[in-house]
Amino acid sequence: MKKFLTDFPTFDNITWNSLPPKIVIDPVFTSPNSTTKFFSDQFGKNSVNIINFNSEIEPLLNSEIRLLKTTEKNAYIRKTIMSINNIKLIYSRICIVENLLDKTFYKQIYDLGNKPIGNIIFTKSTIRSKFSFAENKDFLFRRSIINNPLGNILINEGFYKPSLYTIHQELLKFHQK
Q1: Cβ proximity of 110 and 96 under 8 Å
Q2: CA-to-CA distance for 112 and 41, rounded, in angstroms?
Q3: Cys-Cys crosslink for 151: which of 3, 28, 68, 100, Cβ 3.0 to 4.6 Å?
Q4: What proportion of the chain, given as a percentage, has pLDDT over 70?
């Protein structure tokens, strides 16, 4: 079994497609809305836990530079793990190009701690690009660009396959109550 905090892929050396993998069986993976909101609506707010384990300026991956259409080499990178009912499900890597970080926005992000970033990047004027999808042995991936008034923000998410199956079963049980 993977060590959840240390054995993650880089999102850089995989083939991305415009269609989701065939094994995706519910809207969790394809919903354009906030993933945190989706799970909070399904299981209750207290069932969703986000752990922010890294938030700092770091080098962008080559694919991230291309997607963000930037010449910047560094970005504010926020790495989180989302658990549902104590089941670790999603690893995310959110990239915000440094020149977009005005002091107010940076403080809002820095002050988030373990709260979802969707609270500040999904606004009425936000436009989310279509997802790109990929998979490997352990993960289903999706990535998209959020265009909000400050500029483009790249969201990479890796859904841990064994947990996705377990969460799907929990979701079915929850709705049978």
Answers
A1: no
A2: 20
A3: 100
A4: 76
Instruction: Read off the pTM.
Output: 0.79
Spatial separation of the C-alpha atoms in residues 94 and 156, rounded to whole Å: 6
CB 87 within 8 A of CB 166: yes
Q: Report residue 1's pLDDT band, with 50, 70 and 90 as the boundaries.
A: very low
Phi (first) and psi of residue 77, to 5 degrees: -110, 125
Tell me the backbone φ, ψ of residue 89, rounded to 5 degrees. Answer: -120, -50
Residue 94 token pair: 């959110």
Q: What is the pLDDT of residues 45-79, one digit of tens each?
A: 888 898 888 888 888 888 888 888 888 888 888 89
Cα separation, 78 vs 38, in Å, equals 20
**CA atoms 15, 152, 53, 59: torsion sign:** positive
What tokens were used for 97?
């190009």
Measured between alpha carbons, how far is 21 from 18 in angstroms, rounded to an integer?
A: 10
